Amino acid sequence: MARTDSPPPATDASALPSVAVESTTRDLPNVRLHAVVGGNPDGPLVVLLHGFPEFWYGWRHQLEALLDAGYRVVVPDQRGYNRSEKPTDVGAYRLRYLTRDIVDLIRAEGREAASVVGHDWGGIVAWDLATRYPDVVDRLVAVNAPHPAAFQRVLRSTPEQAGRSWYAFAFQLPWIPERFLEAGEFSPLERMLRGTAPPGTFSASELARYRRAWSQTGALTGMLNWYRASGRYPPIRARVGTRDALVDAPTLVVWGDGDVALVPELAHESVGVCAQGRLKLYSGTSHWVLQEEPARLTADVRSHLPL
Questions:
Q1: Of these residues, 120, 138, 259, 300, which one is catalytic?
Q2: 129 belongs to a structural domain
Q3: pLDDT band at 246; cut points 50, 70, 90
């Protein structure tokens, strides 16, 4: 009998067959983004932003509840990731360009503003969006993601954070990080997820989808270029506590204090830049709050959003 190979795991909306979402491509002024969208077209718009090394699928546990609550939900693969366009120039991944992508994405939905929820790098983009384009953000939720100004301050003053950020410095090297991370079918990236979260947080089938997303042509370099651009073109922001760094949108900061990469001080510093900020600490929870505490996070996000 001839061998039949299994099809590769899906990394578009068909990865969630029981959820009423679809994949779409948004041809924005400066980049083409794949996004998973769903919900009431007239409902309040919520944009969910993933971090490294995930893709839109990182929000799989939160999507259905937000759709059922009546929101219009848009979850992009950010530039460089999975099925979105992957510019080759490191400069294309400057924070201001990543942020402008989300402004254009919101406008592509026919809206002037949205509530924005971001984790990790997605949260950093969300912070910058609320700082740089305050009229575009109705409500902000940042999950284990520091405000860029808070991060720079803590990085300079706290040796422990500098030590925890070793990998970000290593990612500045050309091509070597790619060769290391892709070895053994991306086993170092898989170990990073499994090794920094409680057992069972990421299932084998979920990790197969991650590996598929990482294997897209140009994806691994695109993902790493976020770090390279942050090193070469650091965002220019005022010191924490100055008016230029203040976020006006009502903001919820959610922080798993078991994060091995980010010290809890960053959460407090980030709330300090907000005019209307609240902090929820998840004791003992890892960086991967979306997967480790999905129901709790969904409830906290839902209570913070309008509707």
A1: 120
A2: yes
A3: confident
**22 lies in a domain?**
yes
> Is 27 an annotated catalytic residue?
no
Q: In sequence order, what are the residues at sequence separation of 6 or more whose Cβ sits closer than 8 angstroms to the Cβ of residue 203?
A: none
Domain-located, residue 1? no
Listing from the earlier edge strand, what are the strands of the sheet with 277-282? 21-27, 32-39, 72-76, 45-49, 114-119, 137-143, 251-256, 277-282
Residue 291 sits in a domain whose CATH number is: 3.40.50.1820
Is 8 part of a structural domain of the chain?
no
The whole-angstrom distance between residue 104's C-alpha and the CA centroid of its chain comes to 17
Q: What is the pLDDT of residues 88-103, one digit of tens each?
A: 999 999 999 999 999 9
| Catalytic member of 227, 282, 300, 304 | 227
The pair of three-digit structure tokens given for residue 261, joined into one six-digit string: 């990469």
56 contacts 76 by C-beta, under 8 angstroms: yes
Residue 120 a catalytic site member: yes
Tell me which of 101, 287, 300, 304 is the catalytic residue. Answer: 287
C-beta neighbour count of 52 within 10 angstroms: 22
Instruction: Please state the domain count of the chain.
Output: 1
